[in-house]
Design brief:
single chain; 115 residues; alpha+beta; Alpha-Beta Plaits; 4-stranded antiparallel sheet; 4 helices; 4 strands; 42% helix; elongated
């Protein structure tokens, strides 16, 4: 073990120093990559669903919307024939939400009015 100690003591970069350099390089690479990474933004969309025709339709629609990855909340109103959906824009899209409602038999479209 003495030969290892003498090597590390005499080397310009010790094993610990090399680790520090590697950590510094990794930190610098991460710092350069961070601006390219976009943070997820939570959005809310109001979907109009004109074909709801019974009081149990909102249950089916809500379940379909909640199974879409990125959806955190779905509130469906039979009286207003609409769904207010909160989702992460990096994980899903409005198109995916309208597809989810259409797939269970209730075509929808994004309303022009803001939620």
């Amino acid at each position: 073990m003495d030969h290892c100690r003498s090597y590390t003591d005499s080397a310009p970069f010790t094993v610990g120093g090399t680790l520090v350099l590697l950590k510094t390089a990794a930190t610098a690479a991460l710092a350069l990559a961070l601006p390219a990474i976009t943070a997820a933004e939570t959005k809310t969309v109001l979907l109009t669903i004109p074909t709801m025709d019974c009081a149990t339709c909102p249950i089916t629609i809500r379940l379909a919307l909640m199974h879409v990855v990125g959806v955190s909340r779905a509130k469906v109103s039979y009286d207003r024939r609409e769904a207010r959906v909160t989702y992460e824009d990096t994980k899903t899209t409005v198109a995916a939400l309208t597809k989810a409602t259409a797939d269970v038999g209730y075509p929808s479209f994004a309303s022009d009015s803001q939620p």
